[in-house]
Amino acid sequence: MKKTMTLLLIIATLIGLVSWKKYQGNHNTVQVSIDQVVEKSLSDTILASGNLIFNTQIQIRSQVTGIVTQVLVVEGEHVKQGQMLMQLDQTAFAADVANAQAVINAQQIEIEQAIEFKADIKRRLALNEKLFNQKLVGQEDIDSLISQHKIAQIKIKAAKARLNQYQANLAMAKNRLAKTTFVAAMDGLISAVDVKVGETVVAGTTNIIGSALMTLADPSTILAELRIDEADIGNVKEDQLVEVFSASAPKTAIKGKIISIGTSARISANGQGLHFRIKALLQNAERLYPGMSCRAEIITAQTQPSLSVPIAAIHQDNNQYYVWQVKNNIATKQMVTIGMATDTHQAITSGLQHNDLVITGPSRIVKNLVDGASINAKNNSYSTANRQSTTHTSKES
Amino acid sequence: MNNAAITKENTNTTINTISPAVIVDALVAPTSLFNQFKAAKKSSWLALVLLMSVTFISTMVFFDNMSTPWLIEQQLLEAGELSASELEGAKAIIEQTAEYTGLISATFSIISILIINAIFAGYYLLISKITGKNTEKLVFSDWYSFSVWTQIPLLINSLGFSLLFITAASNDLPLSLINYASLNQIVLGLTPNHSLYMWAESMNLFYIWTIFIAAIGLKKCANLSLSKATSLAALPYLLIFSFWYMAI
Predict the structure, then answer these.
(1) CA A396 → CA A46, A94, A393, distances in Å?
(2) Does residue A362 have a cis peptide bond before it, meaning omega lies within 30 degrees of 0?
(3) Residue B7 pLDDT > 60, yes or no?
(4) Does residue A10 belong to the interface with chain B, where contact is any CB pair within 8 Å?
(5) Domain edges within chain B
(6) Which ipTM score applies to this complex?
(7) Which residues of A touch B28 (CB under 8 A)?
């Protein structure tokens, strides 16, 4: 009997505990995310991606083929205009110069020889003219010497012309020799060094681009070179504001302005669709490096500041919109009228006040909320929302 | 003394086979169970199988009825406050194992029962050797059986848990329902981001019942005074939760 009573007591206690838990579950405080109603400008934006480049940038390529003997700078080094950057092997080019110089020297000797030959003809002509007057030589001898004198003059001219040709060859050889030494064309930063001592650099030809050796850039200004889908290019104009997010700081917006828009469509790298290239000048080049990938939001339209909430806070019931407003940790259904929407935010035209709190999720819990339910705010996401002054709707390019 | 011996002899003859009634005795009349402890040893294996089966089935059914997205969401909630990258990492791992969560949890639960009983059996054997009052010459398997009897309240805990989720309106229930009888859920009500949350969630009030049965059992089987038996029965729990609390 005692055992039966104890067993019944245990069963009753268990049922009581379970019932109490179920009651507690039904009236329990649910944990939700909340956000604050803020006044902000909603923006219409176009998303784009691209890479960062320096505003002024020189790709140093070789005009001659040769082996690298010296690389005198390293990546990231600042250089002055005229500073030597690298050197190719000069042996063959110096030999060409010496050869051309020797040919010139030989030609100059030949000219001297021709001049002397002409002078000799002239002297003999004068002598024969005296002898002709004394009737010691005939007219034929005189004519022959006159002809030889003219030929000697022509030979001198031809030799001088050849000398000019050889001098031009020398100038070309010297020029080629000079091209084995690379100097900075402007003050700037060596942003890339793609060559090492011992490597052979190849001169560019009509169809083959020469070896890229170095990149010299002016680091004071940096651009974002962005790819915009052809469908969006109609909304992009010069001087539009751009917010660029570099790969290294994806949450920090760098303000910029569009300075140029490409005039012809290009085939995308993946072969699908066409895009235009636009360039945006960034206001702050700090900790940005050329070649970095970036994404950008081009602000094509911006509204006046108005009350807005995260779009997750808006619910619809029979063509009427409502939010779950939080007052003293109690959820209340609040009907609202809505305005413009972006991908993330919805403008509220009536029904809420600035700084009101609304529930934004989780959706599964929000779906089962009842009016007057006790809630517990899981996070303070609204504090981060406050820090942002604008929000955007985006079309991705 | 003679009367007790006679009673023991009489009862031995009645329960020396496997009997479910002994399991009920462990709950409602532990003194009479431990009076005939050796005779009830066979029934303890039935109790162990029953405890493991109920735990395994209830855990499996609880998890298998849940939708996968809910399960992932709940596991992330239990993980407390995580950074965005940690959250992504945790989510990726949970998604991979979500399908098997029920099986993994149920298997882990029954393995835990076996291991915990073995640890307690070793502990009780040690007590009997140290106190030198192991008059009944109990060996490890006897103490394992003893430990199983002390854990029987957890069978009621599992039945209560099953009752809770079977009668619930939705299959998507919070994971914390497993610890419905914890100190946290009955008294404290701490949130997952609280430092003492796991500690308080782990402190199941059924452990008090377990300690009570163990105290009665130690008094009888190790021939200890009630106060000493109670202290020694509670000692493992006190040590574990005290060290845990200090480590937080």
Answers:
(1) 6, 57, 10
(2) yes
(3) no
(4) yes
(5) 37-51+107-247
(6) 0.78
(7) 3, 6-7, 10
For residue A5, pLDDT over 60 is answered with: yes
Q: Is the pLDDT of residue B82 over 70?
A: no
How far is CA A380 from each of CA A36, A310, A329, A334, A386, rounded to the nearest angstrom? 9, 13, 14, 21, 11
pLDDT 10s digits, A30-40: 778 888 898 88
pLDDT digits (tens, 9 = 90+) for A229-242: 888 888 899 999 99
> How close is the nearest chain B Cα to the Cα of A251, in Å?
13
Once rounded to an integer, what is the mean pLDDT over residues B205-217? 92
Give the distance from residue A8's alpha carbon to the nearest chain B alpha carbon, in angstroms: 9
Across chain A, mean pLDDT equals 85
Q: Is the torsion defined by CA of B77, B83, B86, B88 positive or negative?
A: positive
A17 touches chain B (CB under 8 A): yes
DSSP assignment, residue A73?
-
Residue A6 contacts B where some CB pair is shorter than 8 Å: yes
Give B62-126 as a DSSP string: HHHTS-HHHHHHHHHHHT-S--HHHHHHHHHHHHHHGGGHHHHHHHHHHHHHHHHHHHHHHHHHH
Residue B76 touches partner A, C-beta closer than 8 Å: no
A10, B180: Cβ pair inside 8 Å? no
> Which residues, 6+ apart, have CB-to-CB distance to A303 below 8 Å?
A41, A42, A43, A340, A347
Range of weakest confidence among A221-235, A286-300, B122-136:
B122-136
Distance, CA of B93 to CA of B102 (rounded, Å): 15
Both tokens of A5, joined, read 């009573």
